[in-house]
């Protein structure tokens, strides 16, 4: 059907006719093609295709984001003079569909927002124009639309952050993956509706990921490297905002989120910018900027990203068809919004699909010629529902033979899982919104532990290959702690101490794990060592206080709690611990003062409220009692714990009794008794005894 264009290349009129026929067929045959929805090329007006009439605008719209001066592609398409020498290469690139880069197999999973594929008609238009000698035509040359000449495409950002110093990329050599921790200066919580990335030097910035780190981990790694940024792994604490991907590839600007779908950004966070840089042949400097767009509307819809993928990848050299698969059955109904496959160089084929409860399959995404350089996150043009019971499946295949032109190793080497591009990965992230908002919790609680268990496998894999990565030890230890596997956590913290014997943080982590294990002597030794390295380590003082208190050394415990409080005056946790220790030593008045400060330092925490209430209700010195205030404090504590904590209700009962509201005291103690978990007969007996006391008080009370 396309033959006509070829036979007609010598005469203008015929070229137009032939191409016009092709165009018509293209449109009729594939109305749903992405190209048809856009302002596609038009051969109206009886003219032949020329650069100025049709081809120029098409190239500008579909290629210009990358093919313009200073951008990532090797030539600009903005003027005829720039395009002309590339005409044949352009024809070849569009016919083979190697350009524009768009990886998903059409018709499998999409349509996606911003599909880059050219329609058949557009390809034939370009080919016919080249066949005809690539004429320029009449009229002024095209120039870039002002919007894409620089400046922000989503409007004026509410906040712009920038890499503090430019990074210098060497002229030659392999690709560089460099990470930069950039503080985000906001005074309080913000709702982020969009983020726009400006590469700073589009010639070398190939793609970028932006993660949020609420801890100091990224900043410390960055600081340890004398140059701007650092090489190496992303700390576990740096993640995409919950439920979102924040990536950038050339030419892409993710639109602002729909109302109610902003994500939450808290103060004191860093943005961890991961840049994939490609040397250009000359030394280049890079200083990227990120614009944030905030909204006043708190999120009402919270998406979740389900991550499918195994972290036990171990690909033997020469393996041509190594497979990695993962499946997950949805526990709730969801709406699917987006998808992002991720792998490194060896992946060849990427598949994601859903099997509905009735057995029908719904394709999600397919990429048949995976290219590390062209990975993207894709948003479905029409979000769709997958019912509970649907099985999500991912299937990736890898080629670790010499026949894979993307194989970075010659001869091929064994490749195992890891974050660095010399390792392999295989993740399929699926962004979903539960159909009922209340189902989010269920989904997260169902899925997250599976992903964390997989993370542990991955970290152990990395450490098996290289046991000297301290941060990986810390990260996996943190994960083990989340799973309550403290002995495993302690094992890795010990490795951290081995690798960084002078690090106070490493000693603190190990000491804290030992404390959790009840190994008090070892915990005290390690926490004391942390304090010898850094005497101003408030958290270490606090935990050392806890260990000493458990060993019965209240005096030294109090002294360390005092130092923790002196170093961090608002630390509600340390204040509460100090107050408890003082109370145990009979220093009631100072204990009361510290409980007051702990309440201010930990608003929303029931414990200091309840303890102070008890003290004010039962102070041995009647003059210091304040039953009215005790009731108010205890009522607040009961509210905060949903009236479900027997200990708190018991205190509330005592406070009522102290005000003389005996009826209420009885009812509340009764409620406390009913909440005592089975098997705690000791607790129940104590409450019953007090309950009897209140009943006697009521009986003897003068009417
Ligand atoms: C998302 C960015 C991007 C878009 C959009 C894009 N290109 Fe490219 N193009 C590149 C990059 C980068 C290269 C350099 C080679 C590579 O990395 O694959 C390139 C290389 C080329 C080459 C040289 C390939 C060769 O054979 O050496 C041609 C021709 C080309 N592009 C044509 C086009 C045309 C025509 C369009 C639009 C229809 C287009 N490109 C759209 C990024 C892009």
Structural class computed from helices and strand pairing = alpha+beta
Low-confidence regions: 1-46, 146-150
What's the number of extended β-strand segments?
20
Number of helices: 22
Q: What integer value in Å does the Rg equal?
A: 33 Å
| Helix share, percent | 40-55%
Bound molecules: heme C
- Overall average pLDDT: 86
Strand order of the largest sheet: 1-10-4-7
Strand portion: 15-25%
Query: How many separate structural domains?
Result: 5
Euclidean distance between termini CA atoms = 105 Å
- Major beta sheet summary: 4 strands, antiparallel
Tertiary shape: elongated
Brief overview, please?
40% of the residues lie in helices and 18% in strands.
Keywords:
703 residues, alpha+beta, Jelly Rolls, four-stranded antiparallel sheet, 20 strands, binds heme C
Descriptive account of the structure:
The protein is an alpha+beta fold and 703 residues long. The chain has 5 domains: 3-148, no CATH class; 159-295, Jelly Rolls; 310-436, Sandwich (Jelly Rolls), CATH 2.60.120; 467-601, Serine Threonine Protein Phosphatase 5, Tetratricopeptide repeat (Alpha Horseshoe), CATH 1.25.40; 604-703, Tetratricopeptide repeat domain (Serine Threonine Protein Phosphatase 5, Tetratricopeptide repeat, Alpha Horseshoe). Helix content is 40%, strand content 18%. The chain is built from 22 helices and 20 strands. Strands 1-10-4-7 form a 4-stranded antiparallel sheet, with no helix packed on it. Helix 6 (87-95) runs antiparallel to helix 7 (120-131). The longest helix is centred in the middle third of the chain and has 26 residues, at 440-465. The chain is elongated, with a radius of gyration of 33 Å. The protein starts with a helix and ends with a helix. Residues 1-46 and 146-150 have low confidence and may be disordered. Residues 59, 62-63, 65-67, 72-74, 86, 89-90, 93-94, 99-101, 118, 250-251 line the site of heme C.
